[in-house]
Task: structure prediction
Amino acid sequence: MNKINYQKELERLLTGIEKSVNVPSLMLHSCCAPCSSYVLEYLCRYFRITVLYYNPNIMTVSEYKKRVEEQLRLIAVYNEEGRGHPIEVMEGDYEPDRFLETVKGLEGCAEGGERCFRCYEMRLRKTAEAALQGRFDYFTTTLTISPMKNAEKINEIGRYLEAEYQTAWLLSDFKKRDGYKRSIELSHKYNLYRQDFCGCAFSIKS
Result:
């Protein structure tokens, strides 16, 4: 079976959108401001984006609040700069108990394994629910920009949820085309807080 080139698939879709007079809506799950920096820069020319900040995996309230504040600050700056279509934002509930219940029994799994896949699914499901409720054209996540995240698995989960929620999943591998490198450049430019762990207690121990 040929491996899907998610970046090429995305570029093909964006070419079609660029030729259309209609601007589709996108519910974008964001894990943090640094990871969203390039994704928002890239996609705001094509979509009316609402960022959903839903990350109950973050281990402490203080860390969670710090990341939310940076996300809000970055979006405000981008909107002031007029980089593309205005970006809106929704903050999901902080539900650390839900995360722990979701990964129960998988605490000892290696980072990047089944525990992480359950976490991806939890956050993407919430994004799909929000997209369906708001009648968005697409939903996706910033998670594929990280070299530490499994883009194939994330897209697999997204496609599964697409069928369940009847909302189109936007294929992606945002790390491609120097996307990850650009996110680092933007993080330095805007002096964004770049955390050195995914967010959960297990990622610190790994």
